[in-house]
Design goal:
Layout: H1 2-17, H2 25-29, H3 35-42, H4 46-63, H5 82-93, H6 99-106, H7 110-132, H8 138-152, E1 157-167, E2 186-193, E3 199-207, H9 212-218, H10 220-229, E4 233-235, E5 246-247, H11 258-284, H12 296-315, H13 333-336, H14 343-356
Parallel strand pairs: 1-4, 4-5
Antiparallel strand pairs: 1-2, 2-3
């Protein structure tokens, strides 16, 4: 009797540990996907996947980085091909599936799936952000300015800035700091975009309770923006300070002139590009609708990876129509009213443009 009891318990334990995993999914199923089917599951085109792999290969070869492109032999199990790991990471970014579900789909262990995805997120943050998210050259800045002056009669525009909240679980460290005024945990993503919705500057990781104006002042852009913009300027909403290289709308006190109203209308029309960029980012990469990691470093890696992938898709004309409407967070009037030394000069510059419109 004792023997049969042990045998029963062993078989039951083995059955509970055995999990059904898809075998040959990438080779037998994904490889046969039509272009639209591939995009349905991974939310990017095959061309964008090839472009991402190309970036990874270039960095690994230039810097002699091992472990991503190829792993030195250690006598262990063979490494999963890079393309397979990239597809796992893309599925992770395009869904809210847990590592266990991804492991079952791709026929690997949960630890293998987790390790492969985390390594690629870390690599993307460390090696690809500065390659893919870049400030326009002087010639490109002039082209952007010329375009907006021709189309909108608004001179000097080189980009648009805004902040977006990325929902997260309560972080394991100082979690209450990330509880925002919408009663959710979040980190702030500050981004500057150009005319085609590509990100040209990103900064993320600050707690959701911090308002856009303070995030801006703590970001590297605040120190380098004047030099980057030259004689031009970026456009931001009223959450930002009005300075010589970042122009905001006139505050509507009920007594705006017609020139000021026209300025605000054109300003808002141009600035809507950054809002659409955030909508596209979150629509394509569902993971950003609620990141379930609790480690801020991993959260930042996930957000920056999405921004890199977003740019790669745009550069490859990889369209995606599922746009989301971004909720606006109320601004703190005490922060918004902070003054800069050049605020007077900025006000004159803004008024001059308003009159020219």
């Amino acid at each position: 009797m004792y023997y049969y009891l042990i045998l029963f318990l062993f078989c039951r334990r083995k059955t509970s540990l055995d999990r059904h995993r898809q075998q040959g999914y990438l080779g037998d199923v994904v490889s046969l996907f039509r272009l639209d089917e591939f995009k349905t599951f991974f939310c990017v085109s095959r061309v964008s996947v090839e472009s991402l792999i190309g970036y990874i290969a270039d960095v690994c070869n230039e810097k002699d980085i091992t472990g991503i492109l190829v792993r030195r032999s250690s006598g262990g199990s063979p490494q999963i091909p890079l393309e397979d790991r990239v597809l796992m990471m893309l599925w992770f970014m395009a869904s809210l599936d847990k590592y266990s579900a991804l492991a079952d789909i791709f026929g690997v262990s949960e630890s293998t799936a987790s390790s492969a995805i985390r390594n690629l997120l870390k690599f993307t943050q460390e090696q690809l952000v500065d390659r893919v998210i870049t400030w326009p050259s002087n010639d490109e800045l002039q082209e952007i300015q010329d375009m907006y002056e021709e189309l909108k009669n608004f001179p000097g525009v080189v980009g648009m800035i805004d902040g977006s909240h990325i929902k997260i679980k309560r972080p394991s460290v100082r979690g209450i700091d990330y509880y925002n005024c919408n009663n959710q945990y979040s980190v702030v993503l500050q981004a500057v975009v150009r005319e085609d919705m590509r990100f040209i500057d990103v900064f993320t990781g600050y707690p959701g309770k911090v308002y856009d104006a303070r995030v801006f002042r703590e970001s590297p852009l605040y120190q380098t923006g004047q030099e980057r913009c030259g004689n031009g300027h970026i456009l931001g909403d009223s959450a930002y300070p009005n300075i010589s290289w970042l122009l905001t709308p006139f505050r509507d006190n009920g007594r705006l002139t017609e020139a000021q109203k026209r300025y605000n209308n054109v300003h808002a029309a141009i600035r809507s590009t950054v809002e659409r960029a955030f909508g596209l980012l979150k629509g394509r990469f569902t993971r950003l609708q609620r990141i379930d990691q609790r480690n801020i470093e991993t959260i930042v890696q996930t957000v920056l990876t999405a921004c890199v992938l977003h740019n790669i898709c745009i550069m490859n004309n990889d369209d995606f129509e599922n746009l989301l409407i971004e909720d606006q967070v109320p601004m703190d009037p005490n922060i918004v009213n902070m003054l800069d030394q050049d605020q007077e000069a900025a006000a004159r510059k803004r008024l001059d443009i308003a009159r020219r419109l």
